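Task card 7
Instruction: Convert sequence to structure tokens.
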Amino acid sequence: MAWDVVDFTVFGAMLLGVGVIYTLAKRKADNTAYRFAVGVALAATFILIGVNGAVGIIGDESNHANMMYFGVLAVGITGAIMPASSHMEWYARCTRRRSLRCWSP
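Output:
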């Protein structure tokens, strides 16, 4: 199947989005491991959306079961944007107690 203008536009928007997000993450973090993890996550997301949109993972691209892979991305994005303050409070509480009781609610 030949690509048309819409296919090139969507692919270009995906490339632009990945580039902008990686550039923002690179400016925000000085940690090399964090930059590498962001790059791997963006590459995996790009490949998942590209393959799912082009040929489909389950059956062809019009199969509705392919939509569940966007749920995987939604869970990852939700976990990434959760407020860090709640995690930091939990960590501070655990280091103050220095016991296994911090694992209980």
